[in-house]
Predict the structure.
Amino acid sequence: MRWLLAALLVLSACTPTKADDDQTRVVATTEIIADLVRQVGGERVHVDSVVPPGADPHSYEPVPADAVKVTKADVTFTNHLLLEEHALIKAIDANAPEGTPNVSLAEAAETYGAHVIPLVEDLGLDVIWLGLAVRGDGRERGATRASDVKLRASKVEGPGGLIVYLTGALGDPEVLFNSADGLTEADVAVLPPAAHTHLNWAFTKPGVYQLTLAAQLEDKPVGEGTFTFAVGVDPHTTGKPTVLGEGHTDLAIDLDKGQVYAFSDVVSGQKQDAIPPDQVVIEVPSRAVEVIPDDARFAFLGSPGAQIHQLPQAVLGKHVHGEIDPHLWQDVRNAKAYVQLIRDTLVKADPPGADRYTANARTYLAELDALDSYVREQISRIPAGRRQLITTHDAFGYLAKAYDLTVAGFVVPNPAQEPSVEQVRKLTETIRNLRVPAVFVEPNLAHRAGVLSQVASDQKVRVCKLYGDSFDDKARNYVAMMRHNADELLACLGSAGGIGGGEVVIEDGHVDIGPRFVNGQWRIQIRDDSGDPPVWREIDEVVLKAGDSARMQVPSDSRFGFLGTPGNAVWLLPQVQRPGVLWPGWNTQDPQVAAEVKREVRWRWHSVTGPGRALLFLNGAFGEPQQLFDSKKLPQESSVEVNTHVHGNWAFTAEGSYRIDMELSATLQDGRSVTDRRTLRVQVGQAQAPPSQQLAAPAEPAAVDGQPSAIWLVAIAVVPLLALIGWLLLRRRRS
């Protein structure tokens, strides 16, 4: 600082001011603040930004010329809340003329209606605080304060193990539930009436889990409930109306009511509410990933160094300390608070300009109202399950909170930091598990975005651009910056790109086509179960592939004559799952669809373009094929009952690209009609097809959603066609 002040004494005598004598001189630390000041001050102010264009306010170190600017200022504006480098704040405070306004906008804007959010230091523990509880005294059931209430894990379903344990005062773990080694009578937690405890909840693999808790009072059943956990996956895909992902929640047995429920403060924020188990999903986000320690006491969790998702027993590492996220302007409503504070500050510093400042602010506040509506509308068009934000650093918490996004991950909390190996591993895991279509880098941090760009390339997702702390040549003011961010989010998260840039080619696993209500709009989408976790995708971004493994020969049975000449090649995506072949079906099981649609959904194929015929048919009770659609006979229509899940045989008679123009429509319970028309793309075959095979039966029944599916069996030569489940049953099968 001494060198700065010395330089200041020399330079201040010889550095001319650039402002006219009648202008109010303003120094702002960042370009964004400087732009807001210009909008309010107009021609009455001369504004300098200390942090130059494209520089990072987190790390910018002031130079002597910056101090000179400050000494000439009639008003100085900083953001602060530790946004700016500390040396910059010291330079401002040491050189601002005595008696002139020196305003920290983020710290003072709350009085103008700004909303602030905590800055959490350890996001690995920024998760729900989950415990077990016994509510009520149970006197009518004979309970006393000495009674034992047992909460037993009677059933766990999921892709891995669920382990619930306590960590004692000396670090020794006590396991209560462990589904990884099989559930027994010993998988139980014992509590007295009106008590609760907090636990560690560990999951060995990402995915959706179901935990059934059965409660007993002195060995007499009291209640039972099944809770859903979304571990490292988007909780919205479970269809549960309430997502519990923060705050304090207990899985509770109410002795007086004989009910098991989630007792949570998440919904109201002021008090805890009882929520039925089938109405909630407990989110265990990707940022809850932990590494199993090399400690024999924790061997029950798995191998040392392996990753688990874990909700901690005590959120002691959170270290909020009252600190606030400084990036308030990412919520346009907070920018409005900045503008009002800037207006009032300029009026005090330059009373003759009060009318001009007030009029300018009024005009600009109206522009910001329109901007807020625009950002909100653009982001609302992104399907809820795709509003996952992964960025270079933690600068977009306000954007996420204000416009219903989720900050799923970032490389580092502060761009001045270098990511650790563990941070890179967590980031990779988050992108893989959530299957995000894009990640976002800040233009001014492009030189530090190598890690995120490389991870994105490895995971084959797009790299898009969001403005955080500064402008560039393409966005030179705040409104342009925020409009770009809204447009970029919609383009990268809400719509398809090219191959490797958001478009998904699926050639194995299970998918379903079906209607959903997305932001209140009826839409055809595809549920992709080919990876973990399942995700609903826009049909426009998906290509289904019937590869070489789907190539077969048309059987000699005359009932299959519609497929072509016996012995000719046909590519078949079958009614029953076969290894290595895509298994597409259709369902009408979206909860809102099931609740609002009257009886059935109408499915219409308008046209098909492609090198051959496209057909969809099912096998009846004795193997007879029942055609639903034939590209030679379009348009055709079929009905699908609400809340059903069906599989059929998709046949294509030649290699190449097909486009199926289809429509799903329905009549709602209130009499309104809804419809959506989309194009399904299917890629059939390869350039070099392998030797063909004839249609054959699977070795055993396949299953979907845990229930037996229909068996499709086509004979070779004279072997009769057989099937175990008929068309009528199949249409009514509910998963």
Q: What stands out?
A: The chain has a mean pLDDT of 81. The CA atoms of residues 333 and 369 lie 8 Å apart. The radius of gyration is 31 Å.
